[in-house]
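Weekly sync notes, structure subgroup
Attendees: PM, AL, DS (notes)

Item 1: joint prediction request from the bench team. They want all two components modeled as one assembly rather than separately. Inputs as received:
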Amino acid sequence: MNKKEVKLVEIGPRDGFQNVKEFIPTDVKLNVLKGLVSAGYKKIQITSFVSEKAIPQMKDAREITDYMLENHSDLDLFALVPNYYGAKSAWETGLREITPVMSLSETHNQANVRRSHDESINELKKIRDDFPEMKITQDIATVFGCPYEGKMEVGPLLELIGRMGEIGIDAITLCDTIGVAYPAQVEEVLDCVYKNFPDYEFNFHVHDTRNMGILNSYISIQKGINSVQTSIGGLGGCPFAPGATGNTASEDLIYLLEHDGYDTGIDFSKVLETAKYMKENINGNFSGHHINISVVQHGFN
Amino acid sequence: MNKKEVKLVEIGPRDGFQNVKEFIPTDVKLNVLKGLVSAGYKKIQITSFVSEKAIPQMKDAREITDYMLENHSDLDLFALVPNYYGAKSAWETGLREITPVMSLSETHNQANVRRSHDESINELKKIRDDFPEMKITQDIATVFGCPYEGKMEVGPLLELIGRMGEIGIDAITLCDTIGVAYPAQVEEVLDCVYKNFPDYEFNFHVHDTRNMGILNSYISIQKGINSVQTSIGGLGGCPFAPGATGNTASEDLIYLLEHDGYDTGIDFSKVLETAKYMKENINGNFSGHHINISVVQHGFN
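Output from the run, pasted for the record:
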């Protein structure tokens, strides 16, 4: 039987690291990135180009990017950018894919990037116009629920994706920012977006706040999502839920998928080894089961 | 739209408590049980009738059972028993449902209850013969994998269920003792057992060792399992995986199912309240996300 293929995207070096208070030395970050590359990852969100004042953890964005582009230009490397200035910095380092952020919930968009929807769309248009060769993979936050507005609806999501399509956004990442999505909702949203935008690339980014990250990731894969994002060691957090876990842990999802008949193209043991290196060298909130507990038993990792 | 019904069985007062080293005062145990009853649980595994020397935590089995039968005889109350002696004790207190334990893996059966398969079946037959009015819901451990023998196969499982059927066992609980099952395996096993024993009651008991408890529970519900067992607060452990998490956390699964359109008949907030009481009063390994982190946001518990 042929294995089903699934594309996993690692975002720990951005979403995980950015939630660690203590500065992680650049060489530790690079060691993690090297581990991810050696494990077989083809696409990694390596950093974000943000204000050093806002997120000091990301102040080595340029150094990280330089190293990765010099040594691993064959991979899909991308970075998060909160605004035009970030997009420009990313372009200047030589990166050719960025992730701007905008929330489906306008209240959350104001809280997160201090812009109305119209202002965010205008900023995005400016990025699109000035960097026509850049792949723009747009994060849409709070797609399934918002800490201020509650459950979100599909109608406004489709409208927002339509506006993004008009200005030439290349791909969309649907984000469950606070980890409230449930299977029936994930199915409904994915059915709607693929029906309305059949030629688009859609990716899934889910936080594990309520222990539904693995399940919802699994559901999105069943629905044929283009890629699923996870964070090694489950490293991360959520500014709106103190103590909350981060994204789905990469090693847990890889373990599941490899056993369930999928080909992830990623070496579980190397990811676990890298996660263990992180736990020893980074003082953060690791929520991955495989890294947090001893589960080595006969025939099972 | 009518909600789909699903039957959840709470096993924390047995599987959870028994993994706590420090003795939990009987009144704390009873307060947890009262909380579960007030939350709407209809079926609870309240204790186990085991040797006090082997598991001192369960030494108040009789007191717990007396209280529950006196005050909540309308509920389905049951206890785990490792042998004939335990079954006799349970019968004498007035309980009318028990869970003997036997492992699909013969190596694990020897380690766990020090018997061969034949010896376990003989013991079971003796229980069946002497207590014909007792409902026997048999736990089959290591159905999906064994710490000694590795992955388990469906053939020997069907054979074992057949032997149990011949001696008049009333229901079967399929246990993923070390938390290694994956969706395709859960689907295969459930398809096989329901095909071969269409009139049987099958229940599902899964440990969350590798963060697949919620997903596998969800899959078993999709497959029409008769009931799913969970442990409040995710309290528990596994003797073969030090530091491992317990069963799927009741409150996490209830949260998921209620959002996903199921009627569990259980009040999430009362379960969460009870889980919080436990965390304050019991020094154990709580793995439930809802109890361990603050996730209260607009419109979401």
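Discussion: Chain A touches chain B through 46 residues (CB under 8 Å).
Action: AL to compare against the crosslinking data before next sync.
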